[in-house]
Structures are given as C-alpha cells and as structure tokens.
Amino acid sequence: MECDLLVIGSGPGGYRAAVLAALRGLSTIIVEKATWGGCCLNRGCVPKKDWYHTARVLDSARHFEKRGIVGSLRGDLAQAWRHQREVVVAVRDSYQSYLKRLGVTALTGHARFQDQNTVIVEPGGDTISPRAVIIATGSAPHVPEGFAVTPGRVLHSDLLFDEPAPEGARVLIVGGGVVALEFAYILRTFGREVTWLARQDPFARPEFSTPAMKLLRTAMADVGLAPIRAGARTLTTTETGVSVTTTGGEIMTADWALLATGRRPVTEGLDLARVGVRLDARGHIVVDDKMRAAGTTIYAIGDCVAGPMTANRALYEAGVVIDNILAPGSRRRDLTRVPEAVYSAIELARVGLTEEQAEDEGHEPGVGFAAFETSPRALGQDEPEGYVRLIADLDNGAFLGGEVLGAEAGELIHMLTASPSLGALRRIAGTGFNHPSRSEEFQNAVETLAAKWRLQGYVFGAGDGAQDAS
Ligand SMILES: Cc1cc2nc3c(=O)[nH]c(=O)nc-3n(C[C@H](O)[C@H](O)[C@H](O)COP(=O)(O)OP(=O)(O)OC[C@H]3O[C@@H](n4cnc5c(N)ncnc54)[C@H](O)[C@@H]3O)c2cc1C
Ligand SMILES: NC(=O)c1ccc[n+]([C@@H]2O[C@H](COP(=O)([O-])OP(=O)(O)OC[C@H]3O[C@@H](n4cnc5c(N)ncnc54)[C@H](O)[C@@H]3O)[C@@H](O)[C@H]2O)c1
Fold this sequence. Notes:
The protein is an alpha/beta fold. It folds into three domains: 213 residues, FAD/NAD(P)-binding domain (3-Layer(bba) Sandwich), CATH 3.50.50; 108 residues, 3-Layer(bba) Sandwich (FAD/NAD(P)-binding domain), CATH 3.50.50; 115 residues, Enolase-like, domain 1 (2-Layer Sandwich). The protein is built from 17 helices and 22 strands.
C-alpha cells in the first residue's frame, strides 16, 4: 500500500494528524493496535471529564439548602462508570465515521518499521510505503518497581476505566501528580474515604502560580482532602484489601488502591533503531523543534515525546507536523501556545509563560487580576472562588501568559489561546461580552492590568504604543 502519510497510533495526536492531513489533501493511513481513540478517549480526558461533571453536580449539593433545593444527592460510582462508557462509545463512533468520511484508511494492528520507507502492520502483514510517517504511540501507566497491579485491589488509572471501580469505601491513592489530584476529588465526592499518599507536595506545581496552589489546597481541604506527605514503600494485597508501608514506616490499610504514579512513553516493538529514531534516557523519542525524529520524513508527537503528557499538547503538535510535512521546516513547536487544565476541587487552567519564565526570557512582566467573587454570574452559581490572572509585557503591552481558576476554567482559557499575540489584550478590551458571564472577568482583568501598569495606550488604542499592540 502506498500513501502520502502513515500515522501510527489513534490517540488525540494521531487522530488529529490524520484528520488534518486528509483535510489538506494527503492520502492517509492510520494504524491502531488496541482501542481506537487511545488513552484520552478511552482511559483519560474524555471519561475522566464525564466523571468530573458528575462529581461537580454532587458537590453542588453543598449549596442546596440556601438555594431552596430540598433533598440530598448520593453518588453511584458503578452507574457513573456505565455513563462514561456510553459517552466514550458514542465519541469513538463519531471519530471513526469522520475518518471514513474523510477517506482515511484505518488499519488495526501493530505497526513496526522495516526500513525508512516501509512499515509492516502485524499480524496481517500489510506492507505500507508511506512518503512520511508520524509516530503517535502515546504512553502507558508506570508501575514502580516492587509494586504489582491486581484487578479489583491495586489499580492504575487504565484499569479504573476498563472495569467498574471496586465497591470498597476505603481507597488509598498513591501519587502527587495530576491523576492523584483529580481522582482524589472525584472519588471523595462519590463518597469514598480517601487516604492520599504523595511523595512530593501536589500543591507545588511550578506551572501554576502560588495563589492558584493556595486556592487549590483550600478547595481540597473543604471537601476533606489533605495528602499525607510520604511515599509508598511497599503495597501488598491482603484477603480483605490492601496494606501499604509508607516511607516513614507507617502501615495503612484500605479496601483498594489507585496507583497514580506516572506514565511512560510507549515505543516497544516499533524497531525504531532500524530507521535511526533515538530515545532519551527516559524512553521518549528525541525530536527536533519541527518534531522530526529521523531524516525529513519520520516525525513523532504526543506522549511518546518528552513534554507535558496532555492531549492538548498532542493535538497541537499534530498541527505543527502536518504543516511541516506540507512545507518542510516551516513551523517550530512553541509549547507556550498549548493550554493546560486540571480538574479537581477547583478547576485550573493556564497558557503561555509564567512570570518567572517571562523574566528568564528577558521580558518585564506585570500582572492584572480579576476575581470571580464579585462576578454576578459566579455569585449566582454559588461558585465565586477563583480568578482570571493575566501577565503582560510592560515594555510593549503584549500578552505573555494567563491563568484562570474556578468553574469552567478549562473552557474560559480559550479567551487567551485564540489570539496569544501582541494585540490580545486590546482585543479582549474591545470585545463585546454577554452579561452576566464569567468571561467578562477577562475584560476586568485587562482593565485592572492597564490601570495598574499604565498600559492604557496599548490596551485601549490611544496614546503611546497604540500602533505596536494592534
Ligand atoms: C486519567 C487521565 C486523565 C487525563 N486527562 C487529561 C485531560 O483532562 N486533558 C489533557 O489534555 N490530557 C489528559 N490526559 C492525558 C492524555 O490522555 C494523553 O496526554 C493523550 O492521550 C496522549 O495522546 P497521544 O496521541 O500521544 O497518545 P495515546 O492517547 O496514548 O494514544 C496512542 C495510541 O497508539 C497506539 N499504539 C502504540 N503503539 C502502536 C503500534 N506500534 N502500532 C499501532 N498502534 C500503536 C496505542 O494503542 C494508543 O491507542 C489524561 C490522562 C490520564 C491517564
Ligand atoms: N488534566 C490533565 O491534563 C491530565 C490529567 C491526568 C493526567 N495527565 C497526565 O498524565 C500523566 C500521568 O499523570 P500522573 O499523575 O500519574 O503522573 P505524574 O508523573 O504527574 O505524577 C506521578 C506521581 O507519583 C509519585 N510517586 C511515584 N512513586 C511513588 C511512590 N512509591 N509513593 C508515592 N508517590 C509516588 C511521584 O512522586 C509523582 O508525584 C502526567 O504527565 C499528566 O500530566 C494530565
């Protein structure tokens, strides 16, 4: 089989690359060895957000009495599991039919390189001669040495989505990353007793600001969640559950455990060495700033490449690579364009540079801020926590980065990703907003920023610098 582009892996990176390639006229084949849609669709973002929505609804019951709602709510994790499964199947069907409509050939099997110009798909043995290849083989849960996954007792996040969650009420979560942050909240809201072991402080994430971490910590504490600062040294299954020995020597028991101990890139069985694709010390595929992994025809994107392991990055990199295949060397990867969002006791989202990064790059950053506590929409929703925080370059009024905390932060962040450029702040200042809405706080944050740092000329378009920012 011949084609312009072969994509290996159908997660968000591979799927998006195949769609963009077909839309732009490339004959495209995509190969998937397991479930179509990869981690994000089947065991990550999509089902997680389905559960997160239910968790938020359950959590809103805290405000029922004062809102005049009578009654209480109780979460049923088994039914919530069935609900996420229905959503996943519906989305998967729509993805597959879209690929079909676009004329993308979808093959099932394990792809491996035979040489620079040939990829074999097993077990069928299809031989493909593509003009370019994108490796988008993603990642898999990392289980620390000495720990064993046992269905029904010791799970990683993949297993949590593959089978209905164990019934036991006492859950032990091991890990201080995003999976732990998100599932500690979801499981707690569904009524589980959560014991949370985190080797590192989960509220010390350099990509988010100190006020963001403070708010997250408070929101977690409000729902009864506080991590124990210790690692898990051993984790064994017992007749009735699990038993953990912490790095401090303490022994704790629970009905079941969730290992949220990271993910590792998947590259096995691809025969990458045959085509000169190199791996770094942690097993990630090494790419240049145009996402080239070997020569000018083999590219890699998403979780199999070093960087934040998010669907957002994989989706963005798909666009970078398709541009580079169509116009070689034309587009450089710029991760400041990729938003990040975390869904926990409070929703957090950010994009662009932090103040520290901005300073390191030679900018003079200034911050503008608008809190939701006076937003009529947020007050009416009983969710006044959070804020919009913007960082601008004081030398030219350019938008450098921003952060949103609070309800729907993952949606609101698009106010900043749509045009992250010199004129972004002026665009927000001049935008017509729906009132009352949470989005209006972006305008307030821009105005606060302008007043505080005397950036009115850049932001409102009159006076010094108006020309620069347009
Ligand atoms: C619990 C959880 C929640 C998450 N929530 C979010 C979120 O809210 N937002 C966000 O941005 N990110 C989230 N993520 C991260 C996100 O899911 C991943 O970053 C994303 O799926 C990576 O996409 P990818 O295309 O690189 O790879 P993957 O989604 O891992 O897909 C790779 C695919 O390649 C296939 N494959 C591998 N080798 C071969 C081969 N040799 N031949 C054929 N096929 C092969 C695999 O079977 C797989 O289907 C979450 C992750 C987890 C675990
Ligand atoms: N909203 C999102 O974008 C989102 C959501 C979920 C996952 N993800 C991505 O998926 C990837 C995996 O997430 P993760 O949270 O599993 O990984 P992670 O790498 O962020 O965190 C792993 C954590 O496990 C801890 N750990 C490892 N061994 C331990 C032990 N023995 N005892 C105690 N703690 C131990 C580490 O210290 C670390 O805090 C991340 O890269 C994340 O960005 C993204």
